[in-house]
Amino acid sequence: MPVSLENIAAPEPDGSPVGIWPVSVARNASGAFEIAGVPAAQIAAEFGTPLFVIDEADMRGRAAAWKRAMDQAFAGLAGADVFYAGKAFLSVGVARWMGEEGLGIDTCSETELETALRAGIPGRLLGLHGNGKSVREIGMALDAGVAHLVVDSLAELALVEKIAAGRGQKASIMLRVTTGVHAGGHEFIATAHEDQKFGLSIAAGTARRAIEETLASASLELAGLHSHIGSQILNLDAFSRAAEATLALRAAAMRELGCEIPEIDFGGGYAVRYTVLDDLAPAPVEYATALAAAVRANVEATGLPAPHVSIEPGRSIAAPACLTLYTVGTIKPVQLEDGTTRRYVSVDGGMSDNIRPALYGSDYTCALASRRPSDDAVRTRVVGKHCESGDIVVRDVALSAQLAPGDLLAVPATGAYGRSMASNYNMLPRPGVVAVRDGQARWLVRSETPADLLALDADA
Ligand SMILES: Cc1ncc(COP(=O)(O)O)c(C=O)c1O
User: What pTM does this model have?
Assistant: First the structure.
C-alpha cells in the first residue's frame, strides 16, 4: 500500500493518555522536546545517545492503573495480584517502583530474579518462568520462596520434584497450560497454540496428567494454573476464551480429583500503540473486566470457590513510558523504482537497541526532538548503523527537510523489549536507561562503553 506523507506524519506529543508519547513529553517555548521538565538536548549531552529515557511517573502510573483495575474487577471474587513482567525491562530501580505501586515481579532467569530480590520484592510477590530453567534457578526460586514457580513441562515437573525432595522441601508450583487459543501480534509472540515450545497442553491431556502427578507427589504442592497466550493482543475475546479453558480445566480437576486449585494466573500480553496508525488498545479496566467476567461465569456455573487471580503485564506498563533518543548521522536520498525519492537518515543505534522491527516487522515512528521541526516534511526512513539492510528504526515517517547531522530524534514506545532484547551486534555498546522525574534525570542502567566490551575479551 502506498504510504502518503499525511499518514506517516510524525505525531506531536499532546499529553493525551492514549497518545503514543510518555505523558510528560512536550515541546518547550523554543520548540525542543522536554521530558518531565528536562530538555532532551540536556539529557543527550549529559548521558549520551543512543539512550532509553523513561518517564518515571508515567511508568508508575501505568502500573498503578493495572493494580487499581484488577483490585476493582476482582473485589467481589477472591482478589487479584499484578506481577510486572520483568522481561519487558527490569532494573533494581524499576523493580522498586513496581513494589512501591503494589505489584510483584515475574522473572525468567537467575539475574531477573536476583534483580527483583535486590529491590526487596518479597517471595510471595515473585514469579519464575521459563521452559528451560536450570537447577540453580529452581534452587534460587525455592530459597526465595517465590509464589509462582511456574512449571512448563512434565520433564520440568520431575526435575522440580527431585530438587525439592533432595532439599526435604515441599515446592509450591503453578502449572503453565496451553489453551489452544492462538493470539498475538506475531507468530513468535503467540504462545498458547499447540505447535510451539511452551506449556502443558490441555487438548493433549498433558496438563491434566501434570495436575495428577503434582497431587501424587509428597514434594510438590499445586498452587495454581497459569495461562499466557501471547503478546500485543488487542482482542478481549482471546483472553476470555483462554480464561474459560483454564477455568474449565481447574473445575474438572477440582471435581474429579477432589483437589484445591487456589490460584489462576492469566499471564500478560496486553497491547500498546506504537504509532498513531495502530488501533487503540483496550484500557487495563477493560481487560480486567473481561477476565473477571470469565471467572464469575465459571464460579456461577460450577459452584466452586473463586480462584485468586493474577496477571503479568509487561509491555503495557513499560513500552509507552519510554522513548529512545538517537543522534542523526549521515543523510542520503535514494531514488526508488517508481521515480520517487526516499530520504535515508542514519542514527547512532539501530537493531542492537531495538530488534523488534527486524524480528517482528514492527512499525515505529519518531520526531525531531532537539528543535522545532520545519513544515517542509519529506518522506524518510530512519535506519541504524549496523551491517544489515534490515536494520530499520522507523520504516516510513515524514520528517523536516531541514534535518541535519547532530539533530536528535526521539522514538516513542520503546520501553518494552528494547533494552531487554538489546545486543552487542557490531560490538556496539548497549545504550543505558535514564529515568526522568520532576526536572531531574538519573541513570537506571548506565550505558556500556567499548572498555566494558573489551573487558570480556580474554586476549585484549
Ligand atoms: C509468561 C509470560 N508472562 C508475561 C509476559 C509479558 O507479556 P507482555 O509484555 O506482552 O504483557 C510474557 C511475555 O512474553 C510471558 O511469556
Answer: 0.96
Residue range 182-191: mean pLDDT, rounded: 63
Rounded to whole angstroms, the Cα distance separating 353 from 424 reads: 9
Backbone angles phi, psi at 328, to 5 degrees: -70, 135
Model confidence at 2, in pLDDT bands (50, 70, 90)? Answer: very low
Residues spanned by the domain of 234: 74-313
Ligand 1 atom nearest to 189, measured from its CA: 14
Q: What is the CATH number of the domain that holds 363?
A: 2.40.37.10
Residue at 64 is within a domain = no
387 belongs to the catalytic site? yes
Residues 327 and 308 in one domain: no
User: For residue 192, is pLDDT > 70?
Assistant: no
**Which atom of ligand 1 lies closest to the CA of 312?**
4
Hey, which of 228, 264, 322 would you mutate to test ligand 1's pocket, going by the most ligand atoms within 8 Å of its Cβ? 228
Grid coordinates representing 237? Answer: 475475546
Q: Is the distance from the beta carbon of residue 130 to the nearest atom of ligand 1 less than 6 Å? A: no
Q: Are residues 120 and 141 both part of a single domain?
A: yes
Tell me how many domains the chain contains.
2
Reply yes or no on whether the pLDDT at 7 is more than 70.
Answer: no
> In terms of DSSP H, where are the helices of 262-411?
284-302, 315-318, 356-360
